[in-house]
Amino acid sequence: MGIRKRARALVLTILSLTRNPNTTQLESCMNCMDPCLKVFEKLILVIGPVCVLLVMLGVSFVVYTMYCYIVPILQKRHPIIFFSEVLYGHWLLVNVVFHYYKGVMTKPGSPLPAQRIDESLLEDGWSICKKCDQPRPARAHHCRLCGVCVLKMDHHCPWLNNCVGHYNHRHFMLFIIYIWQAVLFVMCTSGNYALSVMVGSRSLAHWLLSETPFRFILALFATNPELHTRTIGEVTMVMLLFFICFGVWIGLTILGGWHLYLISNAETSIEWNDNRIMSMEFSRRGKVFVNPYNYGLKNNWKLFLGLVHNRNIFRHVLLPSGHPPAGSGSNWKLGYLVKAPEPVQPRQGYQTTTDNNGKVFPV
Ligand SMILES: [Zn+2]
Ligand SMILES: [Zn+2]
Q: Which residues cross the membrane (predicted)?
């Protein structure tokens, strides 16, 4: 093809995308971005294993630095405080490792072939996937990276190198919650050391001890980093630890806060966007859109954490637990699992009354 023909084809392509009366501007933009998205998706597939390796190296670095440099400083604290810190730190570490492992290794779940194919499937929210050409239940979406439909798909996570869906969503969220706490714990325990290096010879804890009314409480926690000799290697490692944790903690706060909001409203990341569009469409028609999977804050969390069938927070959330989520991921009418059944109204004819002569007859 000559250069002139190529140029004409390019102009026609641009015009068909921008002046086509059958497509909206948003669709045109999405079409233009499609090649970029494909390159981005390929990149995520390639960097997925690298991200998993980075997480493992990051956690190993934090654990190593804590044991080598921070624990010896913490040992100088009150024995009860030191013991509590060691217990809390190890509880967080066990949960972080467990939920990360389960998040990476657990398949999010794909739709099973429909038992029946008729109109009742549409009533249950089923649809046909354009890519797989197969029926899929409500809340399932096609992941272009994995090449399959995923039950209750939230997003494809490069840090897990896995899709986040029905069967591993809980592990993903608990991993974020536990690692957020762990990073905060590391910052608090190494903060005094890092600040004393930055501020100078006088540590923050010392200033607080001598200047504020909290000195009696802080006396339990305070350590004086000046009491032991610092080496260049130690200072470098602790400062690196503190600043890496600070950056990661900011990112985790934003990511975790967003997912806490979504789960509280029984929405996935994909549904959040769809529901906003539906809300606008409903309000344009003078109606109010109601998310059919929202059973209220408490019930949404009970269903999300799988706290049904007599499971409890202590055993199934605070301790590592690999229990399956509530429901099969194909049927989302789960209200019966968390809400008490409606009281049965007495049927008319079963209630009786007595007249003045003692004769009994139904009301
Ligand atoms: Zn599909
Ligand atoms: Zn995926």
A: 42-67, 79-101, 172-195, 235-261
Nearest to 66 by CA among 224, 180, 200, 191: 191
DSSP annotation of 152 reads: T
Instruction: List the helix and strand counts (H, then E) for the chain.
Output: 13, 8
Residue 211: is it exposed, middle or buried by C-beta count within 10 angstroms (0-12/13-18/19+)?
exposed
DSSP symbol at 130: T
User: Cβ-count burial of 142 within 10 angstroms (0-12 exposed, 13-18 middle, 19+ buried)?
Assistant: middle
pLDDT digits (tens, 9 = 90+) for 131-157: 988 889 999 999 999 999 999 999 999
DSSP 279-296: HHHHHHTT-----TT---
Q: How far is the CA of 357 from the centre of ligand 1 (A)?
A: 73
CA of 50 to the centre of ligand 1 (A): 26
Answer yes or no: are the C-beta atoms of 338 and 344 closer than 8 Å.
no
Kind plus residue range of the DSSP H or E element containing 45: helix 25-65
Polymer length of the chain: 363
Q: What is the CA radius of gyration of the chain?
A: 29
137 alpha carbon – ligand 1 mean position (Å): 11
Q: pLDDT tens, 270-291? A: 999 999 998 999 999 988 899 9
Active-site positions read 157
Q: Which ligand lies nearest the alpha carbon of 163?
A: 2
